[in-house]
Amino acid sequence: EGEIGKTARLYLDALKSYKKIKIDRIKRGEKIYDKGSTIYKGIYIDDDGKEKKIALKAANEHTRRYLHQIVMMFWRMSVIFKDEESKKYFVNEYGFCGFDIIMDYYENGDLAAKFSLFKTGQEKLDLILEIAKGLFYLHREKIIHRDMKPDNIFIDDGNKPRIGDLITMHPEEN
Asked: How far apart are CA 86 and CA 15, in angstroms?
């Protein structure tokens, strides 16, 4: 079977559990991030015809080179992130459009840019606690994030943190 066969099988399994989004459902907008990865703001038209603000993480040589890891990440997400608890802590990723990853867009940006939203000590403590709960959830499922930093924590409309860049997740080693 080899590595290519294994990757193809995992890719098909991931596509069964993760939505493949047609290009005509995506309206790509302005570039909002360009440090290693390129991310665009955009619109996703869902099955009901409703428009949702999204971020589109464009495939590059790195993502294509690590397709196997990306497919494994999507498969793990489809297995792990099915309950309501997980939806509180993580960026919602809708699926693939080609090799591009379609995920929620957060107007408030990331923690690196918007830490000033949290003024009081209690607000900062609540923020840290929510991030810790998300990490605890991952570790309970035997998953390590591997790239936790303020740039990968997004702030939703309720000023709650959402852990993103889940492509770096990896099973814990024994």
From this structure: 20
Dihedral angle, C-alpha 157, 162, 168, 171, nearest 10 °? -150
* Long-range CB contact pairs, 6-9, < 8 A, 24+: 6/68, 7/67, 7/68, 7/71
Pseudo-torsion of CA 32, 164, 94, 96, nearest 10°?
A: 70
- Give residue-wise pLDDT tens across range 143-161: 888 889 999 999 999 999 9
Q: Pairing between strand 143-144 and 170-171?
A: antiparallel
Both tokens of 63, joined, read 């993502």
pTM for the model: 0.78
